[in-house]
Amino acid sequence: MTEDVENRPFIPVEYVVRLARTPWEKVGFYALRREVFCTEQHIFSGDDRDEIDDVAIPVIAACCVAGMPDRVVGAVRIHEAETGVWRGSRLAVQAEHRKLGRIGAELIRMAVSTAHSLGATRFLAQVQEQNVLFFRRLYWKSLGEVMLHGLPHHDMQADLTRYPPHGLDQTWLLRPQPRNRQVA
What is the pTM of this model? Predict the structure, then answer.
């Protein structure tokens, strides 16, 4: 039995993770954050923007069609909170792309390595409780529990030795392809 081709969802093979640089990327960056933090998680009402957005560097993950970025499916922002101390916040991946599992990790890698390139000596984030183990697997340590927006979070710090400065403005992420089995 074959699945009706017209009803199958589009599954991109390639993603680009980069500093948002075009107007459509920035619109998609904010739209995804509203989708995740306002509509899905109900943490904010209407919009999640704040004063940090005025100084933050937006980082996006976009799925690609024919090698060209098409739609923003991941977002995070970084900013220098004080000299040498950078923070990441508002990490979001669109629900249908979370099962890939690597988009969030690549956004974090790009965010921390970019900040490291810009002089970070520490990189911190306040991470929702359910994501602490994920961050620990990526070489972050918890500095303690805090309540933020009525939800349990952990103040966490990245191990900068695991995130070398790279100075790149984008990286590529390929979705693993199933192997075709040959029947003898």
Answer: 0.88
